[in-house]
Amino acid sequence: MALPEYGRSVQNMVDHALTIRDRAERQRCANTIINIMGGMFPHLRDVPDFKHKLWDHLAIMADFKLDIDYPYEIIRKDNLVTKPDLIPYPSTKIRYRHYGRTIEELIRKACDFPEGDEKDNLVALICNHLKKDYITWNKDSVDEGKIAEDLYEYSNGKLRMTDHILRIMDWRMEQNYVQPQPQSKQPQQGSSKKKKNKKQKY
After folding, report:
1. CA-based, 20 to 30 A from 198: which of 46, 100, 137, 186?
2. Is the Cβ–Cβ distance between 133 and 95 less than 8 Å?
3. Higher model confidence: residue 20 or residue 139?
4. Read out DSSP for 173-185?
5. Alpha helices in 23-162 (DSSP H)
6. Which pLDDT value is given to residue 140?
7. Is 83 helix (H, G, I), strand (E, B) or coil?
8. Dist. CA 38–CA 136, nearest whole Å
9. What pTM was estimated for this model as a whole?
10. How many CB atoms lie within 10 A of CB 98?
11. Is the pLDDT of residue 188 over 70?
C-alpha cells in the first residue's frame, strides 16, 4: 500500500474508483473517499491545508491515475522522490572539539575586557567550563595545569589562570554546590497518643 496509515479498506475504495468509467460517478466516489479519510483523523481537521493534504494522499494512493477534478493543485509524482538540499556545514575549524565553539567566542570576548573584577569573574567562569567540558569527554580527573595551558593557548597568551582566578573559581563552585539535607525521621502516627494514654492509666 502506498499509505498504510489509511488501511486496506480505503485503498480498496481507491482501487474501485479507478475502475468507474462514468466521470461524474467517479468524482462522487472520490469525494466520498475524502470524507472517509478525513473522518479517520478528526484531530487534524484544524491543521492548515488538511483538505489539501487529503487530496494529495488520494492521488498518491491512486498512483496519480485517478482522472477527476481535484479542488487543489495536487503534488506532482516526481516531487515524491525529490531529495532535500544539502545543509552546508561550517567551514571554520574548532581547535579542540571537546571544548566547542562557544568557549572560543567567550575567550575572545574576555581578551577585549578591561582589567578588573568583571574580567576576572568571566575568566573564572570560562575556566570552570573548560574543566567541565574536559571531564565530560575524557572521563578522567583534570589538573589545573592542563586548563591553564589551554586557556593560555586559546587566548594567545592574553589570559592566565592566576591564584586570584583560582580563588574565584573555588568560590563559584561553592556557591553552586547544594548540600543535601538529611532526612528527618517522622514520628509514627498515634505513638504520642499511646504514651499519653499510658500515663493517664497510672
Report:
1. 186
2. no
3. 20
4. HHHH--PPPPPPP
5. 23-40, 50-61, 100-112, 117-138, 144-154
6. 66
7. coil
8. 49
9. 0.44
10. 13
11. no
- Give 5's DSSP letter: G
Which residue is it, cell 491543521? 47
> Average pLDDT, whole number, for the chain?
82
pLDDT tens digit sequence for 93-133: 777 777 777 888 888 889 988 899 899 999 998 988 888 88
State the burial class of residue 51 (Cβ atoms within 10 Å of its Cβ: 0-12, 13-18, 19+).
Answer: middle
What is the tens place of the pLDDT at every residue in 2-50? 899 999 999 999 999 999 999 999 999 999 999 999 999 888 888 889 9
Q: How distant, in Å, are the alpha carbons of 5, 8, 36, 45, 148 from that of 42?
A: 14, 19, 10, 5, 61
Are 141 and 135 in contact, with CB atoms under 8 Å apart? yes
> Are 161 and 144 a contacting pair, CB within 8 Å?
yes
Q: Which three cell numbers stand for residue 43?
A: 484531530
Q: Is 168 exposed, middle or buried (0-12, 13-18, 19+ CB in 10 A)?
A: buried
Tell me: pLDDT of 186 over 60. no
DSSP 67-81: -S--SS-PPPGGGGG
Q: Please classify residue 147 by burial: count the beta carbons closer than 10 Å to its beta carbon, then call 0-12 exposed, 13-18 middle and 19+ buried.
A: buried
